[in-house]
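Re-run with default settings, no changes from the original entry. Doing this only to confirm the output is reproducible before filing.
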Amino acid sequence: MSYRDQLIARFGLRVIIPAAAVLVGALVIVIISLSQMASEVNNIEDRLTARSVEAALQVTVRNLEQTHRDYAQWDDAVRNAYGDVNQTFMEETYGSSTTVDHVLFDTVMLVDEVGRVRYAVRRGEPVAESPADAFGPGLSALTRPLVRDGVSYDVRSGILVTKWGLAVVSVGTVVPFSTDFSPPVGRSRLLVIGRAFDEEVVAHLREDYLIKDLRLADASEA
């Protein structure tokens, strides 16, 4: 190799090697940047999905609460659910509602002032279990803070683990709607309604809120 060729070769190595290093470095930076961008996009998508799931659950619970109000803050309910309970009224009004495709609720219980069950039906069939046995300890957490002065409407709701699986549950006071209606004296009676929170419900939420991976999962899978 001539001296001239040697000079060219040395010059090439001095220029090309640093240039290649810069190029590799730039590629690494780009790859890392793209990875960080993808990670950030995934994080944003995860947060949006979490918010959508939360919104779906809140709407589900609120819908049952509104149904509870319709059935519990009601003059006729007070007339028939206090004292000697009108079983015919309860059956025609509440029991029948648990058998129509369970659109509103599939389980209902009326609990009196001292905690006795005065009426209980699930999907058209009598329920023998106590509220605690049927709805689990979560029901007590919902019931405990309720105002039971015979006048005020108060309700608490949540998704509970019941004897029959997950369910959206609302428990609240049975009180008059009309301000001029004379309420019963003493503690309010309680109406408990529940609706199964199952794969069918989740499928509707998945479709309504466009959450493609929404599903029920056992806690042990986490």
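The first helix runs from residue 3 to 72. Residues 159 and 168 are 4 Å apart (CA to CA).
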